[in-house]
Write a structure and sequence with these properties.
It is a single chain. Strand 6, helix 13 and strand 7 form a beta-alpha-beta unit. Helix 5 packs across helix 7 and helix 8 packs parallel to helix 9. The radius of gyration is 21 Å and the shape is globular. The protein has 14 helices and seven strands. The two termini are 19 Å apart. A five-stranded parallel sheet has the order 4-3-5-6-7, with helices on both faces. A two-stranded antiparallel ribbon has the order 1-2. The chain is α/β, with parallel strands linked by helices.
Length: 294
């Protein structure tokens, strides 16, 4: 690939707009002018990045898509202020928070619909869903939201994310088994990681929350995945199955993530500790899995 050029997936992640929306803008508004690789792949330049960023800024100011594209094409790059999504995405977090606090499921889904048709899934997860979950967790601890509000929000988001996961076990990429240990009922981060792995080309075998350890071991022996990712919010859940996890790590690469994991525990179990948000963890794991199985 020529230096300084991006394929559509990398381009999408850089600007925070879904590949589908980028292709639509290219076709309808002549916004982008990609070159072609020897193999026929579109290659996007820094100038394309700048035009998308200008278009996002004009959309945030209230312009229609057609008008925003015209202004983005006509504005010289040097005149463009370095404006990109974070401020707008902060506003979207606030909109989502307002809807969920008020038990407004239709409003919350409308916010998510708009985000998912405008931005790449990874951007929505990393810059909207995760900040919202941290916020609602903090407010629950201080009594600013009720148990009912927290449960309503978690269940709505969980259902919506799982609706995006249809087919995530299909394809030809390496398999990844995702689970939470017995007694751990938290799986939103695990779902987000699974979606991101799938977007990176892996097949996801999702066992989910509160997975019996013997079931996990049997699954590994049956399908021989590239790795297992175990996410735990509480270290006690991992400690209770310490011996079984040592057995598991001898059979397959085992990764531990979330607040219940630690580098020390991972070392003791023959596993690897992962630190970071679910999207970043997934991208790193996907790269490792593809390289290992190539």
């Amino acid at each position: 690939m020529d230096a300084g050029y991006l394929r559509i997936g990398e381009f999408s992640q850089r600007v925070g707009v879904s590949p589908e929306r980028l292709r639509a803008w290219e076709k309808r508004y002549d916004l982008l002018t990609p070159d072609r690789s020897a193999g026929g792949f579109r290659l996007y330049s820094d100038a394309d990045v700048a035009r998308v960023e200008r278009m996002l800024a004009h959309l945030a100011d209230g312009a229609s898509a057609a008008e925003a594209a015209r202004l983005a094409r006509e504005t010289p790059a040097a005149a463009e202020p370095p404006i990109i999504g974070p401020l707008r995405l902060d506003d979207e977090v606030a909109r989502l928070r307002s809807c969920l606090d008020e038990f407004d499921d239709a409003g919350a889904h409308a916010v998510l619909d708009e985000l998912l048709t405008t931005f790449a899934l990874e951007t929505v997860l990393r810059d909207v869903v995760l900040p919202y979950l941290r916020d609602v967790g903090d407010r629950w601890l201080t009594g600013e939201v009720t148990v009912g509000q927290e449960h309503f929000a978690s269940n709505l988001l969980r259902a919506r994310l799982l609706s995006l996961a249809q087919g995530w076990g299909q394809g030809a990429g390496p398999r990844a088994v995702l689970a939470a240990p017995p007694g751990d009922h938290h799986d939103l981060g695990l779902i987000m990681c699974g979606l991101s792995l799938w977007r990176q080309g892996l097949r996801v075998v999702f066992l989910g929350a509160d997975s019996p350890i013997d079931t996990l071991i049997t699954t590994v022996r049956t399908i021989r995945p590239a790795f297992v990712l175990l996410s735990a919010a509480n270290p006690a859940a991992l400690d209770a199955v310490r011996e079984e996890l040592r057995e598991l790590s001898a059979q397959v690469p085992l990764y531990l993530a979330a607040g219940g994991a630690s580098p020390q525990l991972a070392d003791d179990l023959g596993a690897k500790y992962l630190d970071g948000d679910p999207v970043s963890v997934a991208i790193g794991l996907a790269h490792s899995a593809v390289v290992t199985t190539a």
